[in-house]
Amino acid sequence: xxxxxxxxxxxxxxxxxxxxxxxxxxxxxxxxxxxxxxxxxxxxxxxxxxxxxxxxxxxxxxxxxxxxxxxxxxxxxxxxxxxxxxxxxxxxxxxxxxxxxxxxxxxxxxxxxxxxxxxxxxxxxxxxxxxxxxxxxxxxxxxxxxxxxxxxxxxxxxxxxxxxxxxxxxxxxxxxxxxxxxxxxxxxxxxxxxxxxxxxxxxxxxxxxxxxxxxxxxxxxxxxxxxxxxxxxxxxxxxxxxxxxxxxxxxxxxxxxxxxxxxxxxxxxxxxxxxxxxx
Length: 279
Hints:
By secondary structure, the chain is of the alpha+beta class. It has helices at about 50-60, 115-125, 145-155, 155-160, 185-200, 215-225, 240-245, and strands at about 5-10, 15, 20, 25-30, 30-35, 40-45, 75-80, 90, 165-170, 175-180, 205-210, 230, 250-255, 260. The chain has seven helices and 14 strands.
C-alpha cells in the first residue's frame, strides 16, 4: 500500500481574462511536529508530514545536539489519536541527560544586530575540523547541467501542488542518491541530513542540490554534514557566501542547464578564480 500523500483538495475561484470558474487545487499540508529530547520538549517544527525520524535526527544534528546517529539510543514516533500523521518524535540522548537543552544559539537569529563576524566565528567553532568539508574531491562541470531536472523529477509533492522545497544528494556522476521535500526549506534539508546520518552515507564526494536560496543557515547545515559542493536554483546571501568561502565549501547559484555561477572554491571543478577572466 502506497503511503498517503499529505495533500488536501481545495476549490478556489480561478479568474482569468475577466472570466471565472471554480476549480480544484491540491494543497500541501503543514502541521506541527514536536521534537522531544530526554522527555523534554526541545522544539516544535511546522513541516510537511513524512520522514519524521529523519527530520528529528537531522534537526538535532544541525542544531549541534548530536555529532552522529550513534549519540541517540532510542527514537520513538508518537501519533495523537485524532491525527493520521506522526505528531512527535522522542529522542533519548544519554550524553545530554540532566542538562538543560533549551535552544539558545546565536545561529538561530537572523537579526541585523548580530554582527556577521560573530556568526562566522561561532560557525567555525561549531564545526569540528574533522567535519569541515575540505575534501580534495574534484568534479566534472558536465555533471551540473542535469541536476535541476533530476531534482524536479524527485519532487513528487511539488509536481502536484507547487508548495514544497526540495533537497537532493547526488554522487560525483550526477546520480540521485535521495531527495526530500517539505514546505520549509530548512526542514527539507534536515530530512536529507537525517537520512544521510541514519544510513551512514559518506558525503566527502557528494553534491547537494537545493530548490531554495542559500542563506547562511543552509550552508551551515551542509558544511556540518561535510558536503563539499552546494548548488541551488536560486540566489545566495552575502553571509551565505562568506560561510561557504571560510569553510571551504564550493557554492553554485542559479543552476540551470547551460549556465550558472560558481562563487566559492571553483578549483573543485578544475577552475582557478585567480586566472579567470572577469566579464
